[in-house]
Specification:
Elements (H helix, E strand, L loop, with lengths): L5 H6 L3 H7 L4 H10 L4 H8 L4 E7 L4 H16 L3 E7 L4 H4 L13 E5 L5 E6 L3 H21 L1 H17 L6
Parallel strand pairs: 1-2
Antiparallel strand pairs: 1-3, 3-4
Helix pairs in contact: 3-5
């Protein structure tokens, strides 16, 4: 069964319409879209795939959206068989909830790739897996460095917080 009806997909905003409605990051989105370079062999590959419909869930303030949507927008600009639609996640929670990241998170952007009959053929959440691995490794390095840098402060804050938790019968979620 398709994720959505034909009517819902066609009512969704095109990339241009979405950008026109953006309240924050509009200029950055446009600049990044203009800067993206897609190799000719990649464009040829996309053109050879037949009709592809892409329903993208996002919100204006999402950093990953600013980096990732322009790539697909550029592909769609050069490949008329790729029909890109971009919608606000919070106005489409019924769809978003079908594609929660790790079954928990309403991660954006979420790209739902569908064939001409709106049958899902693939989904990408947030960013490329290789970039997620790089980010996580770098974040771990930063956390470890900060712990070392602030070791005494860390221990002092933990001492106070342990006392506060017991004294106030506080429960952290």
């Amino acid at each position: 069964m398709p994720v959505m009806s034909k009517e819902r997909f066609e009512k969704a905003t095109t990339f241009s319409q979405y950008v026109d409605l953006m309240k924050v990051n509009r200029d950055t989105m446009l600049r990044f879209t203009d800067e993206v370079q897609i190799p000719a062999e990649d464009l040829d590959w996309w053109r050879s795939q037949g009709p592809i419909k892409v329903y993208t869930l996002t919100y204006d303030g999402c950093g990953d959206a600013l980096y990732n949507i322009p790539v697909l927008a550029r592909i769609a600009r050069h490949c008329p068989n790729v029909d890109l639609r971009v919608v606000q996640r919070d106005e489409n929670l019924d769809v978003m909830d079908q594609y929660r990241n790790q079954g928990l998170y309403r991660s954006v952007p979420t790209f739902i790739f569908m064939d001409q009959n709106l049958e899902p053929i693939g989904v990408l959440k947030e960013r490329a897996e290789a970039m997620t691995q790089i980010f996580e490794a770098e974040q771990l390095k930063v956390r470890r460095a900060l712990r070392d840098q602030y070791l005494q402060e860390w221990r002092g804050e933990m001492t106070r917080e342990f006392r506060n938790v017991v004294a106030n019968k506080k429960v952290y979620p």
